[in-house]
Amino acid sequence: MLTKRIIFTGALLLLMGTSALGYEDHRGVAVDSLEAVLASPHPPKGEELIRVYMDLMRAYNTRDSERCIYCARRVLALSYELNGLSARESALYNLGLMAYGRDEWDQAIDYFQQALAVTDSMRHDSRYTETDVDDKLSQLYGAIGNVYNMKDQLLLAIEYYQRALPIFERNGWLQSLTILHHNVGELYLLTGNSEEAERHYLQAAASASESGDSLMTALAGKGLAKIYLGRGDYEQLLHTLLPAYDYYRAHRGEDGSSYGEILASMARMNLMEEHRDLPKAKAYVEEALTYTDNMMSETRSDLYAAACEVAMAERQWKQALDYGLKSIHEEDEATFGDAGSYALLAQIYTELGEKDLARAYINKVYQVMERSATEHYQSGLSQMEVLYETEKKQAAIEHLQEQRRWITWGTALGGMVLLLTALLFFLLWRSVRLSRRTALVKAKLDGELEERVRLARDLHDRLGGLLTGIKCQVQGGKSEVVGLVDEAIREMRNVSHHLLPDSLRRYGLHTALRDYCRTMPHVRFAFTGEEQHVAHEEAVYCIVHELVNNAVKSSGATQIDVQLLTAKDHTTVVVADNGRGMEVQSASGEVQGDGAGLMNIRERLAAIGGSIIVDSSPGRGTEIHIEIPSEA
Hints:
Largest sheet: 5 strands, mixed
Number of helices: 24
Shape: flat
Strand order of the largest sheet: 1-2-3-5-4
Strand content: 5-15%
Number of strands: 5
Radius of gyration: 29 Å
């Protein structure tokens, strides 16, 4: 279960309206006098009336949400009467903020997306400058990123934060640029992508140094310290952690939680091999524990884990057990980070001679690993689908706007020119629509493959090393625990291998599919052709993987045959089973009630120029033919 992150100074900074145009503080607006203007015998009209409602809308934003919503709706209605695009965007943005404040995430995103569409129209209106548009776009991208972060949809949050990046760079909005790079670094760190997290933290540190922002320099250093601790890079750790420690130590009265987090990192640095200093590590942990009352749950768990590691280094197993138990969440709220604490507890119980408890916590390591991998994978695909649908809507808006411009020109040129222009536009529109859809599906497919590669690497590198370390600790007479660890390592490697096997890159599709089929009961594999790399191997592997899994789970088949044929100009795959079959429309070749699985496969194949034929009927199994042309 993913844990919701609250956006707060010191972790993720609120990125809403942080451009260089300046922040207008509307808290001091005299709302009574403005309300009196509206209630006067001769209230303002036109542009003056919309300005009064806008001032009230902004002033009520932090005072009275219901009144803010009322004023925003009045601004929205007047903006259509007066064709005020900027006012319309502001009204939609404030309505989104009100929904955001009520935790109505989907409604907030809907308002912000409507505001984005209005802002896009401002690009083509001479009343608004490029800076006006940039200011609104950056504000909206930050707001949408914040909402997706609160929804634990980190990939979408990163996507929208990064859309603001070129705007900040183009306008030289240094403070906003620093906050954005820090936020994106934090999110990448949470997804396990330490390389991208490091890149953004370093950029945040560079921007903060240029602007002289000591807080942002310390925040970036705190994030970098986590990365370098994970890598065991002592020299880089010293370079980033010590300045952050000095800053937070000087401001510990203002931000005790962050200071406690830094102290935990200092303790771990003094536990590193060849640089171990147990008295210092213990002193840092003891000082950090005095700040637990002011810490968020995740920070407090990490601190207790650090205290557990120090006690283990001192071989104080009872004390280590106490800290280890405090570092974990409730079982139904366990996160990927709990796997490390479970591993520590397994080692502690082994040392205490509690074999059953050691075995139970080793099982928990595998369970939380498997659940987190599944959740991250499914969440990643779901977020890519949201992005895909959003891009489709944006493409439709762009087409409508383009259509309006063509119609205007056509009317001016006359009847015949209008007909010819409309025909030409239709042909171009259809072509662009098809190519855009293909590109979006291809991007979705590439994103899925990247997610598989990342998950496979994380499972193999991060958790594989952790399980191997546990095995080393429990060697010597504890055969039951060792066997359980071996089983967990084998299962982890199987999961990692099936996501995207290394043999696919090294030896090609034939070897990867053969190895995969051997691991599946009742699956036979046959190959015809030359052993060689073929076009779109990763995509074909994922498609076959999904077809076999569908047959195993849904068809009731007792035998599945996978055939691969490689030729000079094409690759053919046949997946056949003796399951219950399904209804196929003879005219179109589509499956009756075509499920999401087959629809996704059709879209993937279309993106790489492939085709699919399904031959099936109820009671006589299913045979699926896939053909992919070779790349030119």
